[in-house]
Amino acid sequence: MDLVLCHTTADFDALGAAVGLCVLRPGSRIVLTGGSHPTVRDFLALHRDEYPLIERRSVNPQQIRSITIVDASGRDRLGKAAEWLDLPHLKEIAVFDHHLQADSDIPATVTQIEAVGATTTLIVEKLKKQAENSDTASRLLPSEATVMALGIHVDTGSLTFEGATARDAIALAWLMEQGASLGVIAEYVEPGLSPQLQDLLKEALNNLRSETLHGYSVAWVLLSTESYVPGLSSLASRLLDLTETDALLLGNVYKFSENENNRNIAPESPVSNRLTIIGRSRIEGTNLSELFKPFGGGGHARAASLATRDVDPLLTLNQLADELKAQIPHPPTARELMSSPVRSIRPETSVGEAHRILLRYGHSGLSVVDTGDRLAGIISRRDIDIALHHGFSHAPVKGYMTPQLKTIAPDTLLPEIESLMVTYDIGRLPVLENGQLVGIVTRTDVLRELHQQKARDRGSNAKFSDCPVPESVEQLLRSRISPELWQLLSIAANLAQNSGWQLYLVGGAVRDLLLATDDTLALTDIDLVVDGKCGSDDSGAGVELAASLQKLYPGSRLDVHGQFQTAALLWHKDSPFGSLWVDIATARTEFYPYPAANPEVEASSIRQDLYRRDFTINALAVRLGVPRSGQLLDFFCGLLDLEAKQIRVLHANSFIEDPTRIYRAVRFAVRLGFEIEPQTEGYIRHALASGIYYRIQGENGRAPALETRLKSELKYILQAPYWKVALQMLGDLQALRCIHPSLELDRELWRQLRLLDRCLNGRKKEGTTRILTRIHGLMIEGESRVRGKKEEGIGKKEEKEKATILKAQSPIPNSPFPIINIPDWQMRLEVLIAYLAPEYRGKVAANLQLPADSIKRLEVLEAGKKQLAENLPKCELPSQLVLLLRNYELPVLIAIALQSPRSARRQIWEYLTRWANVDPPLNGNDLKALGYQPGPGFKRMLDDLLAAKLDGDLGDRAAAISFLAQRYPQT
To answer: In terms of Cα–Cα distance, which of 750, 820, 853 is closest to 792?
Structure first.
């Protein structure tokens, strides 16, 4: 374990430097050795989970490998953690500081103490150098850049203190490029005030008027001075912070004479009152610029000012305060922010079991409820880690949970929730209604809502530090779908609301809506998610809603899948919907018991439902119905990835859990013209290289994701117009190993696929003979053009998918095997499987659950190939060739031809193009007319007639009758 130690009462410089070192040395953990500065404490109350902090008591000294001290060089600044410096097994002790005069008593092996304004600057310089020398583009997370920028700002007085240097300014500029949040910095940096402003601050605090509305506090004050006072904006910001006010109007009235600015005006010029008002607001939806515009003022929505004269100062200020209060929107409530249902356990649950549940569902804490489902306490991951550290995995959680809880009601407003979390350093607040636990609001919920509010205020042009979040896409959706479909969605939303649920449009429909460039969006497949609890049975809210909707649309068919709490409404050639599939599911979470398994699903919240999806661009949702109809939910920055045209996975283990997502990543990338994000590609390659899929198949006997689900993805790709590009991308990723560990897209396999594709593309509206002639030309003469020639289709628009090859064929005469119609995609898949060693082909086909005839073809392919290799050279006459090859299905012959040498391939194509459609000169009816009795001999007679004709021994009908009379005389 590598530790970074902050000094006792840590400030932002220590924290920022520590975070930077954790970026330089991934896996390091930060220890606050003895508390923190009040502003740092408030900052961490909201942002603790974004940094790799670990409590001192959770550290096992024997596991410490190295120690780095930041912003201090004396043991006395490290509290009890200083004892770790004497551990004999430490590999390294490093010190980074900017206090040159401090005496050091730390036995450091690495020391860097330089005259800069902040220790963080030293670390930022290392990060900047690392980024410049790196071959791959890498950026800091906004949270990392922000806390480091705070460290420099605070320790240099925003570059105004005497110790500030140019190096600090350069470091700060680079952090701004990396996405440091100026809003957060402004919230926690404390600029100094002049003596005059300090006196006015005292006066303002004594005379401040305030009022609370919708959970927001609004304050206003009027100050009177003899003349204009510079720096009122700093005074307003300080007053806003000290009073923890959400919006402030600071007025200053003073005497003003025209001759102060114009010497040509007579000294007796009249003196007038001037009024300056500085406005500051932290409330979403307020606009100070619009508020001040009637008085000639302006600025930004959250910071503006005005200067006017000859007005009643107090009356004007009060009027503006009333108008500001009228602008305040109703903030979100706990009901809108909370996750529900809540994962809960009993007090008797063991710590080990609680840890397993946290791991399964990815939560950071669990609610503990008694037998009456009343809230008894909360246990956090931190509590569980400490218990496990001390060996108490068997102990009940009631001994480690927090029983005295702060709780909120469903109608508690966001500002009050935020205040509770900051004041009491609470990471999660249970939501109780009538004594029952109905939801939970976490620190992440609050941060996400605040973040999205800020993003909406700044618009969608902010880069790197924010996801662009449109406030509503309702009008966009309504304008691009048909009125009938919009009515269907509105009715569904109303039905859900009447049952106390919330309905969301999710997935591909939202993605395509945001990507669409046409005014009309044709949706044939719609996914809806119901966030709510089941009210009557175990089928779930989604099934109940679908059943209610089907009663209003009796022309639809209802399919229910109770196991997965889903239902579907289907319209086929309906007016006005045409062919439409509407899938309605209860919001759910999923857990994979082992890699490549089928997931286990449980009812959950919309957030968890979106988290279980494959990629960020598919994890978008639009809220249908009030409140906030049309609100776009983007928890994972899918909008940024749409803008960047990249496919990004939601978590590192996604491909381990479900390997079919590898194929989906390729399919979406090629179909949408996107790139697979580099880290996501790294996850793909790691999952494939790990060998986990084959190990699981060996241990469990099967891996469901590599069976029908993999076949479905292969079908999607191999039947698409872009299959060549997608298959080459899969080959480059070595993803064909999901089919079998030995399968790779090498030059020979690609040659076979290209030859097959030329066969399939040759099928137009030509007759059988002309088609097979074209096949002959492509497969024999055209082979040399395939070899060594760069793939022509890559990067160009692919031809449209054709009908299957066998649909264009007529039955081969006298063949005991009928020609089977096989889709193009399946023929391509069979060519891929046929490239495997013979002993694997049937097993792989069966594992993918291909049709029985397909499995049989692949199983007998090698035997047929050997038989033909042995017997084809013996065929000197056309009759011998026909009698040999007519017993093979056309797909088998094509597969054998693709793998055979040119001589064998030429014979097969000669059979198909010249001899396969030759009929005997006489048929069964002719034989009966000549007096022959029907029976087994008919077949021998017709075969002999065919052979004679093929070999040129028969000419006309008379010659055929004479041939029969000689060979089969009648008695």
So the answer is: 750
Number of residues that make up the chain:
971
Quickly list DSSP for 498-522: HTT-EEEEETHHHHHHHH--SS---
**Confidence tier at 919 by pLDDT (50, 70, 90):** confident
Q: 466 CB contacts (<8 Å, ≥6 apart)?
A: 142, 451, 454, 455, 458
Provide the sign of the torsion angle of the four alpha carbons 757, 760, 766, 767, taken in this order: positive
Residue 80's pLDDT band, with cuts at 50, 70 and 90, is very high
Q: How far apart are CA 792 and CA 571, in angstroms?
A: 40
Prior bond to 341 cis, omega within 30? yes
- What is the pLDDT confidence band of residue 39, given thresholds at 50, 70 and 90? confident
- Both tokens of residue 662? 């590898």
Residues near 154 by beta carbon (within 8 Å), at least 6 away in sequence: 11, 12, 13, 118, 188, 189, 190
Distance CA 847, CA 844 (A): 5
Helix axes 660-672, 723-733, angle to 10 degrees: 130
Q: Which residues fall within 8 angstroms of residue 123, CB to CB, at 6 or more apart?
A: 16, 17, 20, 21, 24, 70, 96, 148
Measured between alpha carbons, how far is 941 from 931 in angstroms, rounded to an integer? 13
If you average pLDDT over every residue of the chain, what do you get? 84
Contacts of 475 (CB under 8 A, 6+ apart): 630
Q: Which helix (H) or strand (E) holds 642?
A: helix 638-644
3-state secondary structure of 154: helix
Q: Does the pLDDT at position 784 exceed 80? A: no
pLDDT grade for 470, boundaries at 50, 70 and 90:
low
Which DSSP state fits 869? Answer: H
Per DSSP, the residues of 701-735 read S--GGGTHHHHHHHHHHHTSTTHHHHHHHHHHHTG
Rounded CA gap, 800 and 475, in Å? 35
Res. 234 pLDDT band, cuts 50 70 90: confident
Exposed/middle/buried for residue 348 (C-beta within 10 Å: 0-12, 13-18, 19+): exposed
Q: Give the count of beta carbons closer than 10 Å to the beta carbon of residue 886.
A: 19
* Cα three-residue angle 760-766-767, rounded to 5 degrees: 105
Question: Do 444 and 49 touch, CB atoms closer than 8 A?
Answer: yes
The single residue listed with the structure tokens 């024997």 is 62
Strand partners, 530: 503, 586
Distance CA 620, CA 763 (A): 42
